[in-house]
Fold this protein.
Amino acid sequence: MSQLDFRIPKLGPATIDSPIKFSKVRGNRIANYVGDDECLIYTIDTSANSPPHKPDETELMEKAGPREKVFFNSSDVHAAVVTCGGLCPGLNDVIRAIVMCLWYRYGVRKISGVRYGYRGLIQSFGYNMLPLTPDVVVDIHRDGGTILGSSRGYGNEASEIADTLQRLGINMLFVIGGDGTQTGALGISQEVNNRGLKIAIVGVPKTIDNDLSFVQVSFGFDTAVAKAVDAIAAAHAEAHGAPNGIGLVKVMGRQSGFIAAETALALNDVNFVLVPEVPFELTGDNGLLTHLETRLKNRGHAVILTAEGAGQNLLQKSGDVDASGNEALSDIGLYLKREINDYFKKKNIEISLKYIDPSYIIRAAPANTTDSVYCERLGSNAVHAAMSGRTEVLIGLMHDEYVHIPIRLAVSRRNCIDPEGALWRDVLDATGQPLIMTN
C-alpha cells in the first residue's frame, strides 16, 4: 500500500459557510454534513493470521458529500461541464444532476456546457458554450447520448484549454469521461495550477467497459449489461431454432471484459465467453473450434459471447490509433464468424450461424433506473467536492460508499478481470466452458 496515496489536493482552506443548511450533530433527524475526517480504508482484505494494522493518512479514502465550509462563494462561480469520449448510458443524467445541485443547492447561476468534448475548450474549433439551467436539463435524462455532444482526443492541449478557462472566467470544470479523458483532466489541472489559477477540476467516471481503477463500478455499465442481455436472448433463440445453431454476439470491452462476463452471468445462456484477459486459440485439441464442435454434437446449439478486445493476438494489427490514442482493434466478431463457418464447411457439417453486434445500440441507450440513481449521486457529489475546493479528484463508489479518488491514481492502471479471481471463476461455472482454451 505504500505506493498508494489517496490524499486529495485542495485549492485552499474552505472558510465560507455552506448555503446548504444541514446538521453538524447526530440524532436530530436532520441530514448531516460529511466531516473531513470521515474516511474509508481501501484495502479490506485480510486473514485470520494478519497482524493488526493502523492505516496512515495516505491509505484513507475521503467520503464524498457536502461540507459545512466551502471554498467558493456561489456568486463567484462559473462552472462548466464537458463530456468526452464515446457515448455511454447516463451522460445526460450526470449533466442534469450537476446543474440541479449547483443551481438549487448552492445558488450558482452561471453554468456552461462545453460542446463536443475537449474540442469545445479550444478556441480554434469555434464552438460556443451552451448555457445550462434547470429548464434546459429538466428532461434530458430520458434520452440517450449527451446534449453537449462528445468527441475523442485533444485532452493533451492543456495550455490552450487553460487559456479558454482563464478567458471565460471558468473556475469549476466537471469532466465526465474515462481513462483518456481523466488523464487529460489531470494535465489541465496541473497547467492551471502552474498559472496560479484557482480552478477546481472534478471528474466523473464514465467508461462503459468499467475499467477505471479504484472505482467499484462506472456509470452506464449496468445499463450496458442489461442491453447486452437482450442480444444474448436473441442469439440463444436463433441458435435454438435451427439445427446446429450458433449465436455469436460481440460486446464492448477493449482491454477489460466485464460487460461480457457479467452478461453471461445475468442470463446463463452463454456457452463460451471470450475476454481480453484470458487468451484462447481457435484450433488444436483444446481450441475453441474443437470445443464448439463437441458442444454442437452433444447439445445441437451454442452461444458465443466475445468482448471486442478478445483474441487480438489472432488478428493482423492495423497499426492505427483513434483520436484518444487507443490502438485500433481488428474486428474479432467478423473474424470468428468467418473462421467458424470455414471450419465447419471443411468438415462438411451444416451449421446456422447468426452474428449480432449491439455495441452502438448499447452505447446510445438511456440509462436504466439503477444507473440513473448512480448518476444522480455521482453528479451531486461532484458538485460538493468542487464547492469545497477539492481538485484533481474523481467521484467514485468504493465498498458501497461514495468517495474522493485522486485522478492520478484512477488513471495509473487499468481495471481488468483477474483470470484467477472470483468473477471469472463464476463465469466458468455458468458457461461450463473449459478452464482454458490453449494447447
